[in-house]
Amino acid sequence: MMSAVSETTPLEVIWHDVECGRYAGDLELWAELARCASAQPILEIGCGTGRVALELARAGHHVMAVDSVPAFVDATKERAATRRLAGLSVMAVDVRELQLVTRFGLIILPMQVLQLFEGSAERRRVLRVARAHLAPGGVIAVAIVEGTPLEGQVGSEYEPPLPDVAEIDGSVYSSLPLEVARDGDRMIVTRLRQVVARNGDLSEAVDRTALAVLTRGLVEDEALAAGLEPIGHRVIEDGPDHVGSTIILMKGMDPR
Q1: Cβ(176)–Cβ(192) under 8 Å?
Q2: 39-53, 155-169, 189-203: lowest mean pLDDT where?
Q3: In 72-170, where do the E strands start and end?
Q4: Where are the domains of the chain?
Q5: Which CATH class is domain 11-148+214-252?
């Protein structure tokens, strides 16, 4: 269920909720990994508006959630307070600069967060930061979409998926995926965002998000360079309203 928002909610929060907030295909896996974390705290990198962090905190886990977008952090804090989730802490920070005293039994990067970082050097930097915050015996789990799913499926014969739609304070927000196109080492995801206001006025804009094109093998190589040892992976299959993803599991490399 989508978290409540108000007329004062920033648009970036609304669109994140509309496009990402109802996705639940990975929640069971995060819950399973959290239960295996031996009661140690959990770090979520790229928490967005709290989709995963709130669920894990509701299940009784101690969670530190970080994101570089202050509006997302504020929304997650407000939702945690409303639900009285004392076990959830939230911080606005560029993960590349993250320096915490706490060490975590599980560190997760859900929903293609790693793919927002362009270039292998930047991704290795993020993975090194995660490695530095990992408790002995802990696990890092990174979600990626492999390759460029749906690439080139445009034109008269292409039937796009149904839009993500939500009614908020009398206005209807709709986000329709239009195209996934390859641009060098990136894929550009194009969406048509439309808002029908209470008075019936329609406004629309095109949104484009760039994600690095990755494979499990490439991420595992970058993990090794960051001092991490791949220990397996899990697959979340395609669903009617989402593409599948690969969850890559890794642990700290033993010193040699």
Answers
A1: yes
A2: 155-169
A3: 88-92, 104-109, 134-144, 164-168
A4: 11-148+214-252, 164-211
A5: alpha beta
Residue keyed to tokens 């927000």? 173
Buried b (16+ CB within 10 A) or exposed e, 108-129: bbbbbbbbbbeebeebbbbbbb
Give the span between the Cα atoms of 116 and 172, in whole angstroms: 28
What is residue 18's DSSP assignment?
Answer: I
**H-run or E-run covering 176:** strand 171-183
The pair of three-digit structure tokens given for residue 211, joined into one six-digit string: 């994600």
Class of domain 164-211: mainly beta
Least Cα distance to 64 among 88, 82, 92, 32 occurs for 88
Q: Find out whether 101 and 81 touch, Cβ atoms under 8 Å.
A: no
Alpha helices in 50-102 (DSSP H): 51-58, 70-82
**Residue 155: is its pLDDT beyond 60?**
no
For 59-113, the pLDDT digits (tens) are 999 999 999 999 999 999 999 999 999 999 999 999 999 999 999 999 999 989 9
Closest Cα partner for 24 from 240, 230, 249?
A: 240
For 110, the enclosing helix (H) or strand (E) is none
Find the distance separating the first CA and the last CA of the chain, reported in whole Å.
47
**Angle at alpha carbon of residue 230, lines to 226 and 233, rounded to 5°:** 135
CA dist 136 → 132, 133, 175, 180, 252 (Å): 10, 10, 42, 40, 8
Distance CA 146, CA 221 (A): 15
Spatial CB neighbours of 78, under 8 Å, sequence gap ≥ 6: none
- How many residues does this entry show for the chain? 256
